[in-house]
Fold this protein.
Amino acid sequence: MATYAIYKYTLSKISEYEASQYADESKDTPLELAQEAFDGIFRGELPLRIYKKGKDGTDIILDNEIVHKRDRVTVLLVCNEKQIKYTEKKDEMEFSSHPGCYVIIDNRENVAQIAIERTSAFSSKPDSVRNLLQDAINKKIAAYRLRIEIRGKVRETPFWDIVNQRVNEKDSIKWIKFNFGVPEESAGIDASDEMKAVIRGFNRLGKIIGAEKGQYMYNASAGGTLHIDQTEEDMAQLIHYCSTNAYDIQVKFSKYGLYRFGHEERAMPQMDDDVLDGFRTGQLVPDKEGNPTYELLLWLDDAKITYEDYKDATPAKKRRKKSFKKSVA
């Protein structure tokens, strides 16, 4: 079973001058035909020119191929390039590895949705694939004077909602971490007497060692999981105390990854491994009305409905590289 990050994309028009930076020739495309033009770029053996920067600053072309395409839904395989080092009879050897990541582009009318697999091929960071993909697509659709913007679907979620959701989906908890401040007084804390005593103990220890913050981490056993239960009064009181005082709580799930209380939750559903295989081989399943369709399309429809109320993430600002001014004699 694989985990996917859900993204929403928008297509907008650019000027002829902007398009000329990527395409020798371009033609104006009405917005009502934008999705059709976008869908048309996914063809051929190497549909996109995707590349990343190597350590020496050179461009490294990344292989990508269309696994299958049906009903304006494209399954794309994007491969990374990694250098694997190992020792053979005391000699250091190196070879190139090309692990892959599935990208599902749902370009059906009025959908505009992308799902990117969360995989170790790209260090379990779907956003890094999103960045590479957006750059490559923009260079290709510039010929139609179009631009794409791909944003993740996110929402702010109460602590117990996300924990209960992940536990119900059989996602194990590897560790939980609390970051406490050291307030001058502990009076007025909305907690049980026992919890107040625990918190005062944490605060006293912090003051004794002169710490600005205290961090407490609890790890599960190898292959096991922590049991974080809202019905346990002490645990509920501790979570309530941290949340009402803006203290940081972090939970590491095996499949979902890191969740930080108060931070935005990503839309990241799971998919059975045979769903993509069925789409590729043409295996049909009945929908709710008994009509034949593909299980992948049902999964995409469900994701669209489930995350409809999620907002589009604000894109991260690119860091500007420092420039060094030339000195004038």
Summary: Helices lie at 16-19, 34-39, 126-141, 159-168, 193-209, 233-244, 274-281, 295-306. The chain has eight helices and 19 strands.
